[in-house]
Amino acid sequence: MNTEVALLTLSLLYGIPSFLLYVVILFQFVRPKYRNRFSNPFFRLCFLMGVVDCVGYLIFYIFFTLPIYSMFSSFYGSALFFPSPFTTAVYFSAHLNSNIQIFGNCFLTLNRFTAIVLPLKHDKIWDKCFLATIVVSLLAAIAPIWQLSSTAAWYTPLHEEFPERGFAMTLDNYKYPDFSLSFHMFLSNIVACTLCLFMNVVSAVVLIYHVSKGSLFQEIIERRSALQSEKTLMRR
């Protein structure tokens, strides 16, 4: 018990300040004082990803970290966490959150990719496609794990002989016997990492090329600055 208390205390000492700092940073994005500065699609994506991160942290900590401690066994072993739509929603939302983070980061990388490779068309592309990126991220996140939305989930003891020593959430494989969550999560990571790697490599090559052609690079920067100034004046 003493070891558990120490581990829980350490996790809270790290987790709570980090979470609050993250919330403060996100709050700066929507403050009227800084709204114009952070109004471009990149920072809007960062804000949305930050919200997803915060929600994911709370879900994971409350429903996947705390149950492993024996001091909470009476709560997580109660009827509230028997197989139900609630436990299914918790399990599904936790993995959906992870996938949204994976594919959302892909679109952050894509935003930087278009800024470097297509600097003069970057703003126009993202003004038109910003909402589409959110929809595609959600669909890409749901596609590999949609089976979880209708699969029973519940808590089982970590140690069958000592059920009071903590719980872990498990999944019923009866409905979809061929579904492998680990494989689908692995596949999602591979696809996302491959896309990000490709875009980063191309961006690096293009950036090095433009830097070597200093005058062209400077011209692009000046033209983008002029376009940004025009957009700012139009908003006012």
From TrEMBL:
Membrane-protein topology: Multi-pass membrane protein
One GO CC term on file: membrane
The keyword Transmembrane is annotated on this UniProt entry: yes
Pfam families: Srg (PF02118)
Keyword terms: Membrane, Transmembrane, Transmembrane helix
Subcellular location: Membrane
Transmembrane segments: 6-30, 42-63, 129-148, 186-209
Any single GO BP term: sensory perception of chemical stimulus
Recorded GO MF terms: transmembrane signaling receptor activity
Keyword Calcium annotated: no
Family under the similarity heading: Belongs to the nematode receptor-like protein srg family.
PANTHER family referenced in this protein's UniProt entry, alphabetically: SERPENTINE RECEPTOR CLASS GAMMA-RELATED (PTHR31627)
Name under which the protein is recorded: Serpentine receptor class gamma
Species annotation: Steinernema hermaphroditum
